[in-house]
Amino acid sequence: MFLLNNNALHRRPLDPIDAETLGTAGADTVERFLAHRDNHLATPLHAFPALAGELGLGAIHIKDEGFRLGLGSFKALGGAYAVFRLVLEEAERRLGRPVDVADLDRPDVRAVAAGMTVACATDGNHGRSVAQGAQLVGAKAAIFVHAGVSEERIAAIARYGAEIIRVDGNYDDSVRQAAEVSAEKGWTVVSDTSWPGYERIPGLVMQGYTAIVREALRQLPQPPTHVFVQAGVGGIAAAVAGHLAIVLGEARPTFIVVEPARAACVVAAARAGRVVKVAHDQPTVMAMLECYEASPVAWRVLARVADAFMTVDEDEAVAVMRRLARPAGGDPAIVSGESGGVGLAGLIRAVTDNSAALGLDGQSRVLLINTEGATDPHRYTELVGQSPADVLAGKVPVGALS
């Protein structure tokens, strides 16, 4: 499936609230918060000249979020950041004085945090970020996990002291239950998807992701001409596309959203011109992207600043995991989880099927984001045929040279 953005809002300015959330001032705030994280480092940006030559492109760069804040995914930037912001706002209200990120370890601020419970639904990575953020500030966390979340991912969340609440059904079912239970118990929902009347906190989560774009633009030798980013509910895609549109203006790159064919809720929104729920059929191997209804806030941004929408199949996602683990021509190896390399899968498909429509040629400079490392190491090893450690160590699997 490939669809150019023919929505009436395409290339119109962002809504003022979204421009404020995803703009320069918001990104400045994110960087100020990150400076207070003990393990914050900019994630690496890798050049892939051999792959670019093979695909007939000028350059390919991949921003590798597998190293982000010890959580192995870009989600580390969103959930924890939103938790920090919400705790500080509540402390400011209760204490009656200004409170900033430097005050998070003050006893009076931690006493406020100790009385708060933050909650969310997750496919795995967002829940880890919320749980980690809660642990760091001294709040409690309740994380709702649906039937498709692997035991390894659940254990990784529980390690941060979160209460795990299991939900029958899929991600969208867990979102609903998290909202209902939290309303009953007075918990604060820190969701990465939005719904009518609930937009500010998902906006804060998206704001956290702007750090990826800001780092990448500093690391790149030239701004990209094309950006392919994968989508679940659309938050990361909207954050990247929105920030690029604000800081680069008319020079912004062509932006393509990539989804699993089995869970293409953003494509469905693009086709309908509004958020719609797609049917749940077979689960997708791209577990972190298995969402069946786009976030309205994310769609509001993408309707304006995404240029095309496309899907990839199951085998394409697994093929890029293996390709990144065993690159050709001296390109670097990257550990990419089931959902991490979906943007690359989209690029490979687009070069074959849609290069003219997207203006992909020998002058194109493409930016991709590896959104997760091996957040489920056992599943990664099953799919790739190598452990994450062996990939990073450059070990060649048995039979690969035969």
TrEMBL record:
Cofactor: pyridoxal 5'-phosphate
UniProt entry keywords in alphabetical sequence: Lyase, Pyridoxal phosphate
Classification via InterPro entries: DiNH2opropionate_NH3_lyase, TrpB-like_PALP, TrpB-like_PALP_sf
Gene3D superfamilies in the cross-refs: 3.40.50.1100
Enzyme class, spelled out: lyase
UniProt entry tagged with the keyword Cell wall biogenesis/degradation: no
Transmembrane region(s): none
One Gene Ontology molecular-function label: pyridoxal phosphate binding
Documented EC number(s): 4.3.1.15
Domain Tryptophan synthase beta chain-like PALP: 41-371
Domain of life: Bacteria
PANTHER family: DIAMINOPROPIONATE AMMONIA-LYASE, PTHR42937
Protein name (Swiss-Prot/TrEMBL): Diaminopropionate ammonia-lyase
Protein's organism: Mesorhizobium neociceri
